[in-house]
């Protein structure tokens, strides 16, 4: 699942393959940009911004992409077989004399003037892995709505950029609070820990092939994806519920013993999974 650390890795791979090289092939397979031709232009850099990717191209252009749940960029050597998915899922191809970058299942792909990048990413809060990171600003953003559930506040990229569903669940576990606890109800000492802890998790994982929040080999995550297996700390069965605004529920994992605070009522939606709906919409 692409989150700030995996998007950072994608940007590094794309930058290594494309930066300072002239494009010999350009194919944007979305109707609005189907006739756009970037061939002959030099790629200047590939920069991550939260969960967004900005590929800056000679002539003042930026190719903006967002991976969301299923998107990916793959890089292939010349004559290497493409293995990222069927051809109909390809949304972008950028190639030079040595490497080809192929974007699969990209839900967001747009060609912007570089001076207009703010239209795509200007709403984002401080980037956990970016040069603009500011823990004080991130904390102030999170606390603007004290009644908002902690899990929702963490996913809102306007507060801080880079946290996805995995880190949301893991951070809530490490803070000892359920994702439904109003963020204003989090004890002050744990509230202060939140931004630096989030940054630490993403930083230690941005160079790892397998994401880990536990430091234990073979037991990489505390709660995410582990229901109904026992908690690694107390052995209570991990639980899972849907948390979202009704249009975009996300599976949310927690330990009912190690984490304090409200939890959804047990209205069964699927085996081992509870449905819970909130009223606010999360922004990527």
What features would you describe in this structure?
There is one protein chain. The protein starts with a helix and ends in a 9-residue tail after the last strand. With 284 residues, it is an alpha+beta fold. Helix 3 packs across helix 6. The longest helix is centred in the last third of the chain and has 18 residues, at 188-205. The chain is 22% helix and 22% strand. It has helices at 4-18, 118-121, 135-142, 150-155, 165-175, 188-205; strands at 25-28, 43-49, 52-57, 61-66, 72-77, 90-95, 99-104, 108-113, 239-243, 250-254, 268-270, 273-275. The protein is elongated. The protein contains 6 helices and 12 strands. The chain has a 4-stranded antiparallel sheet with strand order 1-6-7-5, covered by helices on one side. Strands 2-3-4-8 form a 4-stranded antiparallel sheet, covered by helices on one side. Strands 10-9-12-11 form a 4-stranded mixed sheet. Residues 267-272 and 275-279 have low confidence and may be disordered.
Which properties best describe this structure?
single chain; 284 residues; alpha+beta; four-stranded antiparallel sheet; 6 helices; 12 strands; 22% helix
Q: Any chance you could write out the topology, listing elements then pairs?
A:
Blueprint: H1 4-18, E1 25-28, E2 43-49, E3 52-57, E4 61-66, E5 72-77, E6 90-95, E7 99-104, E8 108-113, H2 118-121, H3 135-142, H4 150-155, H5 165-175, H6 188-205, E9 239-243, E10 250-254, E11 268-270, E12 273-275
Parallel strand pairs: 9-12
Antiparallel strand pairs: 1-6, 2-3, 3-4, 4-8, 5-7, 6-7, 9-10, 11-12
Radius of gyration: 20 Å
Order of helices and strands: HEEEEEEEEHHHHHEEEE
Please outline the major beta sheet. Answer: 4 strands, antiparallel
Name the helicity range: 10-25%
Round the mean pLDDT to the nearest integer and report it.
Answer: 92
* Helix/strand structural class: alpha+beta
What is the CA–CA distance across the termini? 14 Å
For the largest sheet, list the strands in their spatial order: 1-6-7-5
Low-confidence stretches: 267-272, 275-279
What form results from the Cα inertia axes?
Answer: elongated
Q: Enumerate how many helices there are, as a single number.
A: 6
Tell me the β content: 15-25%
Strand tally is 12
